[in-house]
């Protein structure tokens, strides 16, 4: 709303996404990026992500040499879509990626009409205790 009652009155409302000031963005034509090598602890990968109605994000795990890790390839990954702060990445074998914990890996993000703001590896819990 601008110029409410008087031309000199300006009311504007802005919102800022939590942990979402900067993103890796791909347009409708698609795009991808690969992280530098990293090691993690935890058993699941969560993304702060936002896509359009037709957009999507997939994550592929690469080994230290840049080769796809079996069971964690892009073909195994379910498309993520929507607007979520903690979208869980799911492959055909599930969300558990603890077998990769502590190993040097890279993550390859494939996306279309989407923004990836942040990622984190975390421990899945149930009732305050680690999931089994």
Describe this structure in words.
The mean pLDDT is 89. The chain has strands at 24-26, 31-34, 44-62, 83-88, 106-122, 125-126, 129-130. It has one domain (24-124): Hypothetical Protein Tm1070, Chain: A (Sandwich), CATH 2.60.290. The strands form 2 sheets. Strands 1, 2, 3, 4 and 5 form a 5-stranded antiparallel β-sheet that branches. Strands 6-7 form a two-stranded antiparallel ribbon. The protein has 132 residues and is mostly beta strands.
Features:
mainly beta; about 130 residues; about 40% strand; 7 strands
Gist?
The chain is an all-beta fold. It has strands at 24-26, 31-34, 44-62, 83-88, 106-122, 125-126, 129-130. Helices cover 0% and strands 40% of the residues.
Tally the helices. 0
DSSP E strands, number? 7
Low-confidence regions: none
Number of domains: 1
- Specify the helix fraction band: under 10%
| Overall form | elongated
* Termini Cα gap: 52 Å
Instruction: Please state roughly what percent of the residues sit in beta strands, choosing from under 5%, 5-15%, 15-25%, 25-35%, 35-45% or over 45%.
Output: 35-45%
CATH topology: Hypothetical Protein Tm1070, Chain: A
- For this structure, what is the CATH class? Mainly Beta
Element string (H = helix, E = strand): EEEEEEE
List the helices and strands and how they pair.
Elements: E1 24-26, E2 31-34, E3 44-62, E4 83-88, E5 106-122, E6 125-126, E7 129-130
Antiparallel strand pairs: 1-5, 2-5, 3-4, 3-5, 6-7
